[in-house]
Hints:
The protein is of the alpha+beta class. It is 21% helix and 35% strand. The strands form six sheets. Strands 11, 12, 13, 14, 15 and 16 form a six-stranded mixed beta sheet that branches. Strands 1, 2, 3, 4 and 5 form a five-stranded antiparallel beta sheet that branches.
Amino acid sequence: MSRSAAAPQQKPEPRIRRARFAEEDLVSTFGEAMLAEARRLLGAGAVDLTTTGRAIEATIVADGEHRRVVLNPTQTGPRVAFLGTCEPTPFPQAQRAHEPALGEAACVHRAAAALAALERDPTWRRPVQHSLFDLAFTTAPKRHIVFALEPGSEDQAIFVTVFAETVQGGVRTAAECSPAAAAAETDAVGRALCRLLDGADQHRIGVAAHQRALVDRVIEQMLATGHARWASSGAPLVRNFPRDFRALRNPRTGRPIAIGLSKGSAIIEGTVAWYVDAQTGAVGRARLIGSEPRHPGATTRAGEVRGRANQPPAKRDLSAAPAVIVEGRPVPHLTLFKATPPAGTGGAAINIAQLRFLYGEASVDLEDERQFARNPGADVFYRRDRTGWAHRHSVSRIASIILSA
């Protein structure tokens, strides 16, 4: 028997060659948690990629420690192994050979060096063929139609702007869109609003001040969509209870200016008055109480009381239907807002808590001593319960909260 025949047959060594790699190879070797820490090092600028020739060499400065990493990505069968060293600098005189060390295979510094090479040097990146099944089900980000409301000017009561909004990767993008185009992408409530806006080709549509009924319908429909915002602040519009406001008339435009609303808010006049709070997005009916300023030099003439001539009282129309009086149970409603002092006074904004009580649609101030509260739009009067449990408990509860703050 020949010597060669007698020699035991040895298995061939697996073929080892330099390999390009993809991020999925890093995940299988280092894991998601370690890669997340490696990305943190890259984001902090701690990884300096010095050489990307036959080997990946990097210097990493993190946590007060300097480390030098040398990697040789190697194809071993179906997987890629990241063989190399990770040593603190300066190196010892006798450098270790670039041999795999199983105990260091999951080193975060190796992961950071490999990730830096993958992101900064495209020659190391292995092309990845995506599944046709995944590509078939890849869809574009969904668009949502939103409506922005703003007060009008001159002969326009309001303006409505239509946007097509997309959210992708946490980034919100809004593009101008006409009502005609938006009608094809929104729901039934949104389409009804687009029809009210006449399906115009412009993205910003005005509603004339003399079309008071249309103003009411547009505001009601915007609240029904759930995708309406106040243009100046971006606050989502939400329906709120009716409120009373003392208001002045702008001498130039004649529009009402409510006292007590936050900056950027507005009063909109349709067949009824509407208030919009810019800070909270609250929208509701407003009952305006005139508070027209008198000229400083004006004097009260004889026979005139508070600017009105002394006239005999008008006769009451006894043929009208009698008012209905019902027992009312108060519902406490607390409103929080900031009061900004006039410009130039140097004062800071003050936090204010306003407690009111609701009787049906009537909103009554805490210090209002009237016995009855009139329901807006109807001859119904609620008999107020100013000594009941709900009234006393609300006042005492809020007082205790304020005193303990």
